[in-house]
Design brief:
This protein is of the alpha+beta class. It is built from 13 helices and 18 strands.
Amino acid sequence: MTAIREPRAHDKILRCRIYAAVRHLQQKVVLREESRVKCRFALLSTRALSGMSPMRLCQIALLAVLGVCWVPSRWAAQPSSIPEELRKEVASAVLEDLPRLESLYKELHAHPELSLQETKTSERAAAELEQLGFKVTRDVGGHGVVGVLSNGNGSAVLVRTDLDALPVIEQTGASYASAVKATDDKGAEVGVMHACGHDMHITAFLGTARVLSRLKAKWRGTLVMIGQPAEERVKGAKAMLEAGLFTRFPKPDYCLALHCAPDLAAGTVGVTEGYALANVDSVDIVIRGVSGHGAWPHKAKDPVVLAAQTVMALQTIVSRETDPTQPAVVTVGSIHGGTKHNIVPDEVRLQLTLRSYSDEVRQHTLEAIKRIARGLAEAAGMPSDRYPIVTLADESASATYNNPELAQRLMNVFKVWFGEDRVASTKPIMGAEDFGLFGRTENRIPICMFWLGTVEPERLKGSQPDDKPLPPLHSSRFLPVIEPTLKTGINAMTAAVLELLR
């Protein structure tokens, strides 16, 4: 029998030091589930490591160092392939077009159109693209516009702008403020305003088309420019896809969009990797009761009390039923019921907005709302024919997930183009967009929406004498600073397209 040698003291010390080093390196390894990449080293168990010889631990440590230092080329931060000379050409072209584009922006801002009514805006975008040599198709999924500019072999890049405005009465005081009134789909007369920056999106979109059409010798591939209707109703992307956006026209390898940010300085851009915007669902609940006299509530079934209980109980979906690491929002934005002080009404109506990122949380929240509404009605002794009616409205959108590799690539381009101090890594928000649908088809096309700063830096720092809070998107006071916002938007989108088509 061979004697088993007891490990010497320096062996134990060496083992401890190597073990600590390996564990430290394990913490630095990033697993990218989106790319379905696994790192065996990062999955080594504590027990497995503690049972290895010092020599084996040394080998593992060396492999770990190599593994941490080496990153597959498709993950690695690639420097921009756009030469400085071309960047100067783009900047010069943008400056040359700027006076005309500023006038166009003011014209668009002064003449907004509601969702599903974007006839003039759509036609203006189509006409501008046609003048630049794009092959244009109108009325794609409603008032959607598709312009295609083919320029040899290469990738296909889709650039999207939204076209519609909001039912808001503008209160910015701008000389080019909207005074437009329109009739909405319910027959009511409403004010109309570009309170979400879509006028800036359209102008930057057309400015990008002008620059890229002028510099065709500098890129190869296919450019697909689309004007999407009904974004504010989260209907336009779906309508365009159903109308054959990816089948009737060149299928893109990448999809890009920008969006005004009300909390970033003008002249800057922001990029979010992964989830950028949330799932959104609109839910209507009719809490039904049995009407009666307010003086004899025991002879009625009060839907007002039941509605109040329901509103409170719904808050436990997030606080007590959802994994705390998974973001979710349940907001009751409207509650209406009753006609007179002394009447127990027949019903109370609730309107909810729901937000989430994961599909699992989204589905659970919807199911929980139905379960809670019915359960409380049963507990109140409501007749089965008077149980609540829960309806999912058609204004729902899926989360916008920026492809991490594409987002990182664009961030690197923007840092070279603008300087690191003008590019922010932004956090995901609970706002919603239907742009995310373009990345959710069976093709799983990489998409990225980045943020465009719109605020004077001085106001952002809170140095204004009145120190008023910044107007958010959809505010009647939201108004982007035209410069340098517009110039930055055109440069940023042009840079992104050139990076993908060179």
